[in-house]
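Late entry, evening session. Most of the bench is empty. Finally got around to the prediction I had been postponing all week. Sequence below, unchanged from the version circulated by S.P.
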Amino acid sequence: MSLRPRPEIEKLVPSPHGGPDQAELKSLGLTPGEVIDFSVCSNPFAPPAEVKKAADTIVVNRYPDSESTEFRECLSVKLGVPADNILAGSGAMELIRLIALAYFKPEDPVLILEPTFGEYRVGCQIMGAEVISQWGEERDNFSHRIDETVEIIKSSRPRGVFICNPNNPTGRYLGRNEIESVLDAGDETLIILDEAYVNFVDEIWHSLDLIERKNLVIIRSMTKDHALTGLRLGYAVAHKEIIDTLRLVRPPWNINAVAQEVGKIILNGTDYLENSRREIRKTKKFLVDELVRLGFTLVPSDTNFFLVKVARAGDFRAALLKQGIMVRDCTSFGLPGYIRIAARTMPECKKLIKAIETMGSY
């Protein structure tokens, strides 16, 4: 008899993600460098110049600081939050799984507002928690019905609630009053507010002053908005009791020396992110206007990416990929009639529109 893993792991279904599949590209005679990737929602512009200059100063022949102390201190100054309220993570993904590991047990109900990022469900499944899904409706552009969310929390008393804000893949952004209503619905329910894409929203409200409520943890990414997705760096902000709990299950040395140093450089920078946002607003508007001109239906979005309704998302993606352009097939989000597009540079956006025009039917 072979040694079997836990039942939860045997039944685990991995979550698909955007980005290139090298085996798929190879079968098409393509390399990653030849593909324009609209399937990932990160900053399309090159990282800050200071990042490259730092390479020669980083010490890699000793262990990095397990506490990421200097990085968290820089974050503390930038955010106006004590360093003890911050935990560094190897991207938002690690933080999601640490939260599940620390707070969920088998059969715990956990509410997920969908369609959304698939890793929330994976984190729950690893721990054997029972997922409750609340789906937005297509006729409402997949907007979350927060009054219904509140009622679910009051009736089901979930151990946790995952809210992606702005939401991936819809780009919809909930306001402060809506999040506060969810927080008020249950003191014993942990609200996980994933703000990985918040820096691409034009008008944001400040969520960090809510962390003293003791049932909120905010997750943010440092790499999507600074074009460093290959580096893996993010952080969680919460009441000190929650951070101390997450620290207990966090692996030692979880943030490598390069990521810690680059994180400090980014936080001390000034103009890069705002300049990128300015250009992204222009290219997003170009894409939206051109796709509407071509007759597509789009879901209104508050961030740098948006959904486009098509006949069959898998076929649409495959047709574009043959031309060296990648978009996100949203079938894995439960949306087989939609693709997701993230704004890139203007020359790249023009190539996308030209490629779509050559496809004929959509």
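Two things to note before I forget:
DSSP finds 13 helices and twelve strands in the chain.
The longest helix spans residues 272-293.
Will write this up properly tomorrow.
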